[in-house]
UniProtKB/TrEMBL annotation:
Domain ABC transporter: 6-241
GO biological process: response to antibiotic
Higher taxonomy: Bacteria, Bacillati, Actinomycetota, Actinomycetes, Jiangellales
GO-annotated cellular components: plasma membrane
Domain of life assignment: Bacteria
Protein name stated in the entry: ABC-2 type transport system ATP-binding protein
Amino acid sequence: MTTTMIQTKGLTRHFTVKKDTVEAVRGLDLRVAEGELVALLGPNGAGKSTTLRMLTTLIPPTSGTATVAGYDVVAQQREVRRVIGYIGQGNGAAHAQRGRDELVSQGRAYGMSVRDAKERAAELIASLDLAAVADRPVSSLSGGQKRRLDIAMGLIHAPRLLFLDEPSTGLDPQNRANLQEHILKLRAEHGTTIVLTTHYLDEADAMAERVIVIDHGTVIADDSPARLKADHSGDLITLGFGSVSDAVRAAARLDALEGAAVTASGATVEVRAEGGPRLVPGIIRDLDATGIAVESTAVNRPTLDDVFLNLTGRSLREGGTATDTVSAEEVAA
Ligand SMILES: Nc1ncnc2c1ncn2[C@@H]1O[C@H](COP(=O)(O)OP(=O)(O)OP(=O)(O)O)[C@@H](O)[C@H]1O
């Protein structure tokens, strides 16, 4: 039996803006077990931050209930705060201070002795790779180093549960990869339960064993990235033809393929189906036999964006979001 770390029932939060009501979170039912690494994935405005802010006691729910480590987020705020670490969007430490001093002050604020706070700060500085910069003013740190310091601040009191709101927003790809590695290491070393929000598809895919997809304040899917992709999407086969009429004829023929969704656009036909790489040779042979030459092929694996598109009819992708698209050769390999 796994210990429940987070349990919400009908968790709801409304905001009133002028006379309008914004239903930021609508009746969320969630359970997160101790030790899980869960990503809340959704577009801007889906309700991810509002959910975290309720779970971290920063704002009360409009209705519904939530417990964290067995404590009620409304009635037992102090107990909840003792067991969690929260790294919001751009916490930003005081800039003239040295990172190490920031960490010790934060530890003291949690009631740690100076000695314990110093010891823990030194540990975190080492494990988050901050040794070279910990004694410099925070204002001189790079974005990636500041974000790692934010994480150290959230971890100073050794929380059992860490909330990370958009941990890598504003970081370049190298720093993002670096940060992800640090988070995974922390978890491996301390068994910390981690809940992070992200709208980076690749981040959710690479880090989380469980992805909770949120849209308009409700959960629309909840599973491992691999299962989500297998259940809600298929491979995308793109076929290129010499003419629009060939593409139209090919699409008509491919429509007969069981379990496949076919769309034609110009001289290109897209087929969404399971087991794409295995289907392609047969498709080429079949079309060839009916006098339609396939000029190019590509097979792309499904991404979490395809899952979201399939579930909502909209794309989650925003500018700069990486994909896990691979070429036909890689798929076949
Ligand atoms: N303090 C507030 N007052 C009014 N509306 C709010 C407030 N906070 C959030 N909202 C609204 O609630 C909805 C959910 O916002 P929330 O910040 O939770 O989304 P999100 O999924 O975290 O988005 P992002 O990825 O952009 O951070 C949005 O429509 C937002 O405008």
